[in-house]
């Protein structure tokens, strides 16, 4: 398996992976919206590809903000159901974190399972002073301080526009 940047001709196949991984069809719609958005970052739209060239998983991270400062929002993350629990999600997460660090980014934020994401170093976002726009997100709202993290960067988190217009 390799992790590489998404190419434009991957999109039908990777959208099918997102569709298969989530019961909610809104997640594939969200990814299509993110492709078309100003917050799309080509270096952080990553596919996991098998040696046979099949797309096993996909993750996208887009521009977001904490207060007025730039940060990153990760998600959706999706692994083709028959390939789940074989390390594909782990490889996509590690590649996203490495690339975000290489880009000199400060903070990676997501909404997700408290059983899965803490293994990558994510902590409750409020412990870093990051306020969710929706208080019901609770402990599922998590953040990872990257190498260039500024301890003073706190405030209300804002995802890329397609997250709020769906
Ligand atoms: C969640 C998901 C991305 C994980 O990827 P994966 O390749 O299956 O997981 P990995 O092989 O990297 O890691 C396996 C571990 O994750 C755990 N795990 C897998 N899916 C999980 C989930 N939905 N919630 C919590 N833990 C999960 C497994 O129990 C396993 O834990 P263990 O190592 O302690 O046994 C994948 O299962 C998926 O696409 N699920 C459906 C879509 C989804 O829920 N995406 C996350 C949205 S935030």
Automatic annotation (TrEMBL):
It comes from Arthrobacter alpinus. PROSITE patterns: GNAT (PS51186). Pfam families: Acetyltransf_7. One of its GO terms (molecular function) is acyltransferase activity, transferring groups other than amino-acyl groups. Residues 1-147 form the N-acetyltransferase domain. This is N-acetyltransferase domain-containing protein. Signal peptide: none annotated. InterPro entries: Acyl_CoA_acyltransferase, GNAT_dom. It comes from the Bacteria.
